Amino acid sequence: MAGTGAMSAVSSAALAQMKAELTTALKAAGVSDASETDTMPKGFPKGVTWANAYKMVSQWKEDGNPKTPGNLVLSQDLVNKNVAATKSLKELGYNDLSRFKVGTSAVGAIDTLYQSKTNGLVGSALAKAGIYDLTAFPKGTTIYQAFKLIEDPNNPGKLSTDRFRELKGAFTALSALGVTSLANFPRGTNALDAKALLEPKAVQMLAMTGMTSENFKNTNLSALEQMGILSRLPDTIRELNALPAGTNANTLGTNANAAKKLVALGYENLNAFADMKAFGGKPVTAAAALMQVTKKPVDADLPFPTAASTDRLFQSTEQAKIPSYGKINPVKYTVYSPNETDKVKPNPPPIVTVASTAEILAANILYWQRKT
User: Fold this and answer.
1) What whole-number percentage of the chain has pLDDT above 90?
2) Could you give the dihedral angle defined by the CA atoms of residues 300, 306, 308 and 309, in that order, rounded to the nearest 10 degrees?
3) Do residues 230 and 237 make contact, with C-beta atoms less than 8 angstroms apart?
4) Is 235 left (phi over 0), alpha (psi -120 to 50) or beta?
5) Is 143 exposed, middle or buried (0-12, 13-18, 19+ CB in 10 A)?
6) Could you read off the pLDDT of 74-126 as tens digits, one per residue?
7) Residue 50 pLDDT level (bands cut at 50, 70, 90)
8) How distant, in Å, are the alpha carbons of 244, 343, 369 from that of 346?
9) How many CB atoms lie within 10 A of CB 104?
């Protein structure tokens, strides 16, 4: 009994500490009327106890002791998100968590609702934000993944227009270089991550072409966007100022695409090609350097790449459609089959009998005998 009382005292003390910490965090999250004396913590769905609320907003923190799992520490960020998620749930008509699995947090309940394919919430949310298709996202992105990509990180269930503009701009820059899917990137990479990964590569490509920001009408473009313009020349020539002396749109576009390939193969600049005998001290262009790289057999003085190859990131992820031979092949062309009455039948010639003179005379005798 003494041991039971001690355990009860410890539990009461722990609960009191939870209430104190959680109340302070709730007030910081905007729940000004939160109090430790409340039966249920305010700011959470109905029916959530203090202990359950604390579990929703706490996380384990390593304490350096391999014998213990660490310390359970309250996270102010999780408190803010769960309070915001509770408001979003109320707007959707869910005042409690009775329809969700036991242990589901308010943030988890939002994810469960928008991940469902039957209630139409995710499609409605995207439509309200002016997003009616997924053309602004890489190929293969599901509607729920698109929702999570542009969800406001501080307000679960709400979309961020700023986040959408950033992702759309990043994917537009990637698409200009032919990257329409993130299948070749590490798992979990989004358009912003892919742009950050390829932006230094685009700077190297741009340096190989000899172009700078001053050569573009819009000087605020990123290196990826500038390379996207150059790789589509001469169609995009209106987006450039006067071309550098001694070049034209077709040549510049060829060099831009060659620079893209060289950087993807691991060549960071054109300086290493200057020592090749094939150039004889002449200025090296990206197109000429690529010709030496793809030449077979290669010259003995061809320089080695100075960086790891990232050619896979620029490869097309379009898959050719394989026809299925298990389906019925529809008949598109037919041949007319006539009825029996319409068919042409052969007309054989009559049988010809060859008779001798004696047979003809005998036949005439018999014939005239019957007449007389």
Assistant:
1) 52
2) -50
3) no
4) alpha
5) middle
6) 999 999 999 999 999 999 999 999 999 998 999 999 999 999 988 899 999 99
7) very high
8) 84, 10, 42
9) 17
